Amino acid sequence: MPDPSPAFGREASSRPSRASLRTAVVWDVLKDALDRRVGTTGEGSLDVLDTGGGSGNFAVPVARLGHRVTVVDPSPNALFALERRAAEAGVADLVTGVQGDVRGLFDVVERGAYDAVLCHGVLEYVDDPAEGVRNTVAALRPGGALSLLGAGLGGAVLARALAGHFTEARTALGDPDGRWGAGDPVPRRFTAEQLTGLAEEAGLSVSAVHGVRIFADLVPGVLVDTEPGAAEALLKLEAAAAELAAFHAIATQLHVLAEKPA
What we know:
GO molecular function, one term: methyltransferase activity
Largest sheet: 7 strands, mixed
Oligomer: single chain
Number of helices: 10
Organism: Streptomyces roseolus
Number of strands: 7
Keywords: Methyltransferase, S-adenosyl-L-methionine, Transferase
Helix content: 40-55%
Strand content: 15-25%
Distance between the termini: 33 Å
Strand order of the largest sheet: 3-2-1-4-5-7-6
Protein name: Methyltransferase
Pfam family, one: Methyltransf_12
């Protein structure tokens, strides 16, 4: 069976792709959660909701595992790309795209109908992150899992500082939304405590917190692309550091896996 990871397989040299360096940690955690849910329910095929899933970076690999995936996204262009990608992957019958967003989620999907919900890169852009999380939780069946991925405050501060933009780094550090200035394209960033707090306040039990892209965005691309074995070593380093709380503070993204009480 083809590798179902979001990187859609390895490059010809078997070296991890740049996409896999950025998504491998989240994918491994998500796949384990889906496997556990299959074991708990006894159902071989789960119902998965991907809010803001765009063109299917995660939805299509999840479908390739045999699960039914509904993608909710406000962009018609992204949903068109999703349809094409699902067809190319041979999972068009398992992937459904609907136009909408997390705020009006139940205008387009049912409550309590999903074994897992993905909310990746969404909370940064909504007016009320707490409402967004509550809606994703309401879409879950009892015992279902929420995969929550958000932009990390510390990673942005570190990146601006290493680029020599020290004033912007300090601005982000003190800004309530973690923004480094008017030109910042990300409306909001989070600490690990803020993301886990949102999940817990919505009634979920947090089972894991991971730092994502701790090193991948800081290492010069030429080093990863040209140094023999560098990409594989970096991938292993990311995985080893992801669960360590000390590195959550400098991660570009933060991933929280939480479960709804059964």
